[in-house]
Structures
1.
Amino acid sequence: MKDSVSIVGLGRVGTALAVALQEKGYVLKSLIDLDASALERARSLLGEVPVSSSLEDIAPAQAVLITVRDDSISPVASHLRRNLPQTLLVHTSGLHPSLLLGEGPRLAMHPLQSFAHVKEALENLSSSLFSLEGDALGLEWGMRVVEDLGGRWMVLEAAQKPLYHLAACIASNYLITLLHEALKAMEGAGLRREEVLPGLLALMKGTLRNAENLGVPRALTGPMVRGDVGTVKSHLLALEGWEDLGTFYRFMGTRTLDMIKEGALPTPTDALEAMAELLNRGSSRSGGR
């Protein structure tokens, strides 16, 4: 029989892990959340598992997962440590170290994945990379669980976690920011958001497939890597009077030129210099749109 697990926090991450662990044969001893709707969702997905809105009702288990928001991890862990001092405590923050869990068996186990909904989270877990950071007992448990879930794991040091988490935010959260800015430009051209969103999503998916197959930066396409100076100039002319999107375009363009140089892509040097001059010249002007 697999280990027994209790879970505190039944948001998207906690609920998805509860369902996945139960499917893999782990015994769910208790599920805790303050939100009545989260408890009801857990009942509908997991059957006859004890649920409660009080930490006092936590059932002893071989591991207790703390899947609450980052700011709540420490107070929850302090309460659990007082009552279950030798129990393995596990939190799922990508930023905070396992030491936040206090003295005793500990593990930080973060799935490098986007959890917008429970259904999608369950579908993505088996292909996810998990970062593990903790003591020897915690790491051993985490490796076994991740492999049971069908994922992959890597071990981090606590000092690596801030930049690791920052990178995850850039790759996931800022991808939506990029899409938002692209939609703003489409709307500026008089196109309807709902009309162009499917096309932009298809473009982004194709780009991500290229990155998977070719790597970064070789997957880069478009006017900058081709050295089309005139195209970049036309973009900047279209952005005159549109300060916020212009600033965004110039920043991303400059970072793209840096990537082209660092990656030694075959863009003509004179074109790189001309595009850089255009971007820098544009940054000295401001508009009011």
2.
Amino acid sequence: MLQQVLMFVLGLVTLVAGAEGLVRGASRLAVAFGVSPLVVGLTVVAFGTSAPEMAVSVGSALAGSPDLALGNVIGSNIANVLLILGIAALIAPLLVAEQIIRQEIPIMIGASVLLIVMALDGRLSFAESALLVGLVIAYTVFLIVQSRRASQAAQDEFEGEIPTSNWDRHWSVQLLLVAVGLVMLVLGAGWLVDAAVAVARAFGVSDLVIGLTVVAVGTSMPEIATSVVAALRGERDIAVGNVVGSNVFNILAVLGVTGLVAGDGLPVSAAARNFDLWVMLAVAFACLPILITGREIARWEGAVFLGYYAAYTAWLVLQAQRHDSLPAFSGVMLGYVMPLTVITLVVSLVRHNGPPAPPR
């Protein structure tokens, strides 16, 4: 067991380091070839921080663990919003760029709805996977075309995500970073998947639950690092953009490519169809108050997000153990937490429909 734990930790560290190298090298290469910082922030950085999810999900599908592949993406999207935005909002209230409000969040919600519709028959088919890949290509092209019309001020919002050191200015170093990052991602993904499956089977926990929790948080480490650093530096709109962009790519690119690699499509378990996918959709809709309540996630809203993530994780653990307290816990969630959520949204609407808050 100790060997599996060490392999899991080594795989996780390798994944994070590989993603950092890939993002750094690809970002500098994109700028060197004249691609705008806006497009780099929404595409290259989003792809880079989603690279661990891609590596783990593809590796899991090839290793015959489709539940781990699917659970990784669903769990990462849930963690990105509830855990990462919750932590970042506690550090500093998150102000959201207008483009993210009007475009990226609705696209994230739309991608979540599309995935649920595709998964209702119990399988993400090869054709449906190809459609997801086609959509992410179209989305990327759309962003490139849109960037040509963007003002310099809008582009500058994302420049903070691109490294500006001297040692990697030459294109050869940037190419090396990309190559080494990809190799580390592949190696790290293999170690992490093997260790996670071994631990899951040893404790009698399903691959889906392991993917939804431990692996999901592990592969979300690049997003966690990016959003926390952005919040600490005052680049609070980037913290939100990084999460929303990564969620879109997780659904369209990661699951699309995984379904294609699987050959005959990706099976979707009944547990995922009946519960986890709907939680992912609810979490995507949880971003809607940002659209309504003044372009801000306050600290108390971040605390609510963290509370929800803790409750969701506790529910998964109780369900995996078939614990006697599961019915009572579910009753509390449905009888108290959900109504409290409605009250919270109403209070938030009333607060933000009043006089505008003074600048921070």
3.
Amino acid sequence: MSFLPGNAQHIGARSSQQDSFGFGNLDDQLFLAHGGFVAVVCDGMGGMEHGDVASRTAVRVFLDAYQRKTPEESIPAALERSVREANDRVVEIAHNLGAAESIGTTLIAAVLVDSGFGKAMYFISVGDSGLFHVSDGQIQTVNRPHVFANILDSAVTRGAMSKEQALLHPERESLTSFIGVEVLEEIDRNVDPWPLVDGDSILLASDGLFKTLTAEEILGSLNGNAQAWPDALVERTLEKRYEYQDNVTVLCVTVQDKPDALKLPPRAIEMEKTVMLPPRKKRSRRMVAAAVIGIAGIAIAGGGGWWYKKHHAPAITEKK
């Protein structure tokens, strides 16, 4: 089986590039046999210099840590260990810069592997960067973003606030977890293999892509050779000419056994729909916490004391 990577990146309308990305080593066949092929995207935050430092550091530390995986260590365990090492290093840098809990980065990483159970993917996610699975002309969102919208929507479900209040809340897109927090609690990952078949692709992207393009527009750009998809997606993003277009980074990795496996049949949509809002600057965890306290008052007034406690316990989301 071959792993076919592609990538594209653009600064958008920002004054600096705070997205960073990296791949594993395709030439290391011994490692690929047990560790698979890894791809990672980080979207930095915390100012021009700090966001760049955070994302580049997280990518480098994560890849170095994952490369130390042994055949005895499982892929999910290696991914979590690598994420925590990246978090510790970014926290250390933040302290050295005198900017504790005010800089950080998202992280989305995926590993494609061919083993005894067949082709599969493992992933790990912190923050709101996206992972998508493209198969048989359909696209599916894989990971769950760590944003305050999750807490707001839960409040709506419990009757603690209206849907309109939740949709218009100014902190809706604020991060509730990112690389660079003192105690990393919210992690999204899978522990059982995510099945893949010949010709399947995965896309990893910073939010500059999917907060600009709709699901239909993303899928409509996936034509021909999958290795060219990132270029097509970045180009289509820039065609929107948004005044505040965020940095945009897209990686694609395809598993291929046959030369014709990259051709897509007629398309269908399975991506989750997202309310399209103007790009917003990512908030620090402290600002999110202040917003949480405000919602907690509403929730408790509606009998939601348990709701507030539940959503602030350590959380590692595992897909099985």
